[in-house]
Amino acid sequence: MTTPIPATRFAGPAPAQRLEQAAAALTAHGFTVELLGDAAAARARIKDLIPEGASVFTGASETLRLSGIDADINISGRYQAIKPQTLAMDRVTAADDIRRLRAIPDVVVGSVHAITETGSLVAASGTGSQLPAYAGGAARAIWIAEAQKVVPDLPAALRRVEDHCLPLESARTQAAYGSPSAINRLLILNAELEPGRGTVLLLRQAIGF
User: Fold this and answer.
1) pLDDT of the residue at 82
2) Cβ(130)–Cβ(189) under 8 Å?
């Protein structure tokens, strides 16, 4: 049975009990989960989790941008940052190299659009550039997700993606690039089979969308 949730509630942080339930379910499914207070705590934790010099690809994410994690990875010089490297490459002549670099980094860092209390992660994308690394191409994956992304089940997660995230992301891409976004790729991660590969930093605050 699908639990009805008004679309307006997708913006509010889930209470502690639901966060803990989601964390327990993800843990049971093989993910490493850390409940953190806020984005500043996640920003500090990332520095502990990623070794200096690792190749790191960051998925497009308002969570990463607003928290400062995107800049820490792509500008600091601490890591082999894949995103600025690929942005400087020719889209036509180096297309295969760009694809490979994004697909198999040492670490991928990003976010997801929904987390279910039953222990699944849901990520939508217009281009799909981050999804191969999320799904298994990266040796390690780290997702930073906020409290408002916790929903009861997969139907509610898909509603959150379509009714809440897509309009906000379309407004962002329209302003930035002159075109709306679309849900062209959708990845559902129900379990992590390799111990220690997938880490979820679940924040008690709500930032991004």
Assistant:
1) 96
2) no
